[in-house]
Amino acid sequence: MVKNKIIREMIAQIDDFCRRRKLESYFVGGFLRDLLLDREINDIDVVIKIIKKTESVGEIAREFSNKTKGSLVPLDEKNDVYRVVYSGGLYLDFSRMRGQNIKEDLSIRDFTINAIALPVADSFHIFSAGKDIIDYGGGKSDLKSKKIKMVNKEVFDEDPLRLLRAYRLSAVLGFKIENLTKKLIKQKSFLINKVAGERIRDEFFKILEIDESYQYIFSLGEIGLLTEIFPEIDIMKNAVDCYYHQQGLWEHSLETLNSLEEIFLKLSVLFPQNYSQLIKYLEKKVTDNIKRKSVLKIGAIFHDIGKPATLKIIDGKVRFLGHEAEGFKLAKRLLQRLKISNKMIKIVEKIILHHMRPGNLASASQLTDRAISRFFTELGEEGVGVLLVSLADHYSYRKVKIKRNEMKKQLMITSEMLGSFYQRRKKFLPRPFLKGDDLMRIFGLSEGPQIGKLLKLIVEAQVEGEIKTKKKAIDYVKNFIEKKH
Known about the structure:
This protein is an alpha+beta fold. It has a six-stranded mixed β-sheet with strand order 3-4-5-2-1-6. The protein has a two-stranded parallel ribbon with strand order 7-8. It has helices spanning 4-21, 29-36, 57-68, 102-107, 139-144, 155-158, 162-173, 179-188, 197-208, 214-223, 225-229, 233-238, 248-265, 267-270, 275-283, 292-302, 307-310, 323-337, 342-354, 357-363, 369-379, 382-395, 404-423, 425-428, 436-443, 449-463, 470-484; strands spanning 24-28, 43-49, 71-76, 81-85, 91-96, 117-119, 147-148, 176-177, 312-314, 317-319. It has three domains: 4-145, 2-Layer Sandwich (Beta Polymerase, domain 2), CATH 3.30.460.10; 270-428, no CATH class; 436-484, no CATH class. The radius of gyration is 27 Å and the shape is globular.
């Protein structure tokens, strides 16, 4: 987030630069929208009309970048769109004006609240409640009525990502999507398949980023857009029988997401002793733009996706044996389509593969230190996420079956395990005395699954206090290998 003082200084620099270069230029789009809404700003959008054939936005952006000590990043060289990035999170996007004038440019933007402009030359009015804002489509009126409205009926054909962006803006701004716009999104939802996975990922995770994303994910499912992005959801929607929720597995999955978000909002009440550590864990960024809490939400949505494929009736009872492994296989495929990072996929893997474990621990006669140690030794810090998603999984049944004692015990076990983890974190996550390279060098082993298994055994033994030195670790592995042979 960038304070207004920094924005004012940057606006002044842009104004001075454009005047010296005699450029016809305009502040546009999301920058002006957020300014009128009095939202924090960290990006500025500028459109430039190119008249001379010898000029390009790229050259102009490079010159401005050099003058202001920014870093130039080409966003779309074909359409002449460039970004200048500054330390502190501020960035400035320069783009070529589309059409002959600013009216034509605004007429082919996405939504009315983004189809507004202000001449850079009039920037001294920029903080005066929208004075001199150019608005041909009623964007300022729609901002006041908190409405997302398409500029024209061709907006989704021109860029199908706008189908999802409408819901992202609705979620982030708290606006409602106008009925005709929503109707057209439903009709055109199939077009989202033309969009690159990484562009869909960025918009989708911005929705998950808000505290109460459940209602928007639910709406995306209702309108059919979510199924176009994740066709696997049809498997869950059609699996109605054998599930407690009226609409089956998909409703259960959404209720798990809803419950997880409720848990996030009540952390200080549910886990007062570990509140600050949990907030730090959830708010930590897994990638440059995506926080861990959003990754846990993905895990919540797809934690049971493997159930339909593994459903069997054994001794008259419904069973889903192996649904965790099958579920991750399906989830990994859909996440890879969105170009999700391997680091994020590994977190989702742990959630899906192990979301049943906390429930199994709660149903045991006693929760032992050894069981807690094994859990966190194997899952590391992501065991925290597994616990929270598992708790949400149990809470999702509140509306369809009341088992207050079971839920109370699950909360108690979760609280105990979280407390144990944060009290003994260094013990649970020790630095191993031996690395994979050491095992291959000392014991002549080849790279493969065996190395990972041995490293896991070493860490477990360290946690249990069986290994306290590197020499003991070498002896431990030697004995293990000899017993195997």
